[in-house]
Specification:
Elements lengths: L14 H9 L6 H25 L4 H26 L7 H14 L4 H14 L14 E2 H6 L2 H11 L1 H16 L9 H25 L1 H25 L16 H6 L4 E3 L2 H6 L6 H6 L8 H7 L8 E3 L11 E3 L4 E3 L1 H5 L7 H7 L7
Parallel strand pairs: 1-4, 2-3
Antiparallel strand pairs: 4-5
Length: about 350
């Protein structure tokens, strides 16, 4: 499915009418929020402790427990995510408290992340405002004009083994631990508070169960959670038919409906991921609680034209690496090899790098 930058959904009524239809779903239900906290936090803590206990018998028994615990931690991150958008509770204070606690468990500073994520929503699919909470993406022209070293850096970054192997470690150790220069006082405080809380909790757990047990349980859970999180973020904005446009032509409505995907997951995965697969709905109105996203998708007919793919077909997005402004589509590095006549020797050398997965 492919959309040009000037194409609008054919059955789009008016942005105002769609916005009005969505607004009725953006009011949080306190009891649903409380129930999500209970059925997410309690199982996660129980599974974490069960994983520690299982270490006495066999690590092979511990592994499936940790994977399931990671599933609940993803769900806790969705709660954190909704709090950051002010969509989990009506109360701003309640969102801040629950968001901060959720952030400590997911090792993510609340105010720091919320600020960066808000910029992502405001600039998503805008070619002139890349770099805010998104996956690094170059255009074909930028790649052609880049130095050899920068092309290699980009190819390494986009390599799945690097993105989903080293990426989680980078987020865990750098992105969420170190304050960026332009952060305000509130954002800095959230980073320091989160880091201090993580150290304090780790110290208590290490004192109680030992450093080996703590690391054998906590690190794999965090790694699995981050891999899943990076994948969800990647696949929801990197797919065939995705919308991108320059600032003067960029349209928020199109960026939401066509720039965010409907990742159709099995019911159990939808539950663990807090319906984040309905990413197009979320981007169009981020104030809608996660449990209302499926209802919106079914009711608003314009979403029928949102790019849709299932769990397995989503992996096809891994082959896309560059944005081709001429065709208005994502292309692979392999596609560049078919344009040898348009490249000089230096560019051909970069195209011939040993990335066999493409």
């Amino acid at each position: 499915m492919s959309h040009s930058k000037d194409q609008a959904p054919s059955n789009r009524v008016t942005e105002a009418s769609v916005t009005a239809d969505l607004s009725q779903f953006q009011h949080p239900n306190t009891w649903k929020g409380v129930w999500q906290i209970i059925n997410s936090f309690v199982p996660y803590i129980a599974l974490w402790w069960l994983a520690v206990v299982s270490l006495r018998y066999s690590y092979w028994l511990t592994i499936p427990i940790m994977i399931l615990a990671a599933g609940f931690l993803i769900r806790i991150f969705i709660i954190f995510h909704d709090c950051g958008h002010g969509s989990f509770f009506r109360s701003k204070l309640a969102n801040r408290i629950v968001g901060t606690i959720s952030g400590i468990l997911t090792f993510t500073p609340y105010d720091y992340w919320r600020s960066a994520h808000a910029k992502h929503h405001a600039t998503s699919a805008n070619l002139d405002k890349r770099g805010f909470g998104d996956v690094w993406m170059m255009t074909v022209e930028e790649y052609r004009n880049a130095s050899r070293s920068k092309r290699w850096q980009y190819r390494l970054y986009r390599n799945p083994f690097v993105m989903f192997g080293l990426g989680p470690l980078f987020i865990f150790l750098v992105t969420h631990r170190i304050v960026r220069r332009k952060a305000n006082r509130q954002e800095r405080t959230s980073v320091y508070l989160t880091n201090a809380s993580i150290i304090a909790i780790a110290a208590i757990l290490i004192w109680a169960i030992g450093i080996k047990a703590y690391l054998l349980v906590q690190l794999p859970i965090m790694f699995c959670t981050l891999v899943a999180g990076i994948w969800l973020f990647y696949v929801q904005h990197q797919f065939d038919g995705v919308y991108w446009a320059r600032a003067e032509e960029w349209d928020y409505f199109k960026a939401s409906v066509l720039g965010g995907s409907y990742y159709r997951l099995p019911a159990v995965l939808n539950w663990f991921t807090g319906n984040i697969g309905y990413h197009h709905v979320h981007h169009l109105n981020s104030r809608i609680p996660n449990y209302n996203l499926p209802k919106c998708h079914k009711k608003i007919r314009v979403f029928d034209e949102t790019p849709t793919f299932g769990f397995w077909t989503g992996f096809k997005s891994l082959r896309f690496r560059l944005w081709d402004e001429e065709s208005g589509a994502l292309v692979s590095f392999r596609a560049l090899k078919k344009r040898r006549g348009q490249f000089g020797g230096d560019q051909l050398a970069a195209s011939a790098s040993p990335e066999s997965s493409e």
